[in-house]
Design a protein that fits this description.
Shape: globular
Structural class: alpha+beta
Strand order of the largest sheet: 2-3-5-4
Radius of gyration: 17 Å
Strand content: 15-25%
CATH architecture: 2-Layer Sandwich
CATH topology: Muramoyl-pentapeptide Carboxypeptidase, domain 2
Length: 159
């Protein structure tokens, strides 16, 4: 039987609490380099995973489909600008940021979740230019995601 949204939220809250507690200890013992390694590992894993998917398109509409349209109730976001070559999103609520920040572990959450955005872009199409100047995880009022991909760099499965 699939878990309800409430059961999923409870399970994730427990998992995040455990991860935050463990990584606070690791950072205390070994320093912030632990989070740098974690972040780089996540980016590489996500890049390889997305790269391996047999996607018919590797462009910004595909980014919207495989990443943003799958977030369910974990995030609240709006699409502020969208063309085939440019997309700007504003995330105003993030379950992950809420959970990590209430544990005073935004730095850990950033390494485990926010960093994956770079891996998604690299794996989908390395020519996607991704930028973000604010994150909820780091205490800002939103996450401002911007994606740019010139039409000439858009990749289809037949390319």
């Amino acid at each position: 039987m699939p878990e309800t949204p409430e059961e999923r939220q409870r399970r994730l809250s427990i998992e995040i609490g455990q991860r935050a507690q463990l990584f606070k200890k690791l950072v205390d013992e070994f320093g912030p380099r632990v989070l740098e390694i974690t972040q780089q590992n996540l980016i590489e894993e996500v890049r390889a995973w997305i790269e391996s998917l047999p996607l018919p398109q590797r462009n910004l509409p595909a980014m919207l489909h495989i990443l943003w349209n799958q977030v369910g109730t974990d995030l609240d976001y709006t699409i502020e600008e969208q063309t085939p070559e440019h997309m700007k999103m504003c995330v105003t609520r993030c379950m992950w940021a809420d959970e990590f920040r209430k544990r005073d572990a935004g730095d850990i959450g950033y390494s485990f979740y926010c960093a994956s955005d770079y891996g998604y872009c690299q794996g989908l199409n390395p020519k996607i230019k991704f930028s973000r100047t604010k994150t909820l995880m780091q205490g800002d009022d939103c996450c401002d995601h911007t994606y740019d991909l010139p039409a000439a760099d858009s990749v289809s499965s037949g390319d």
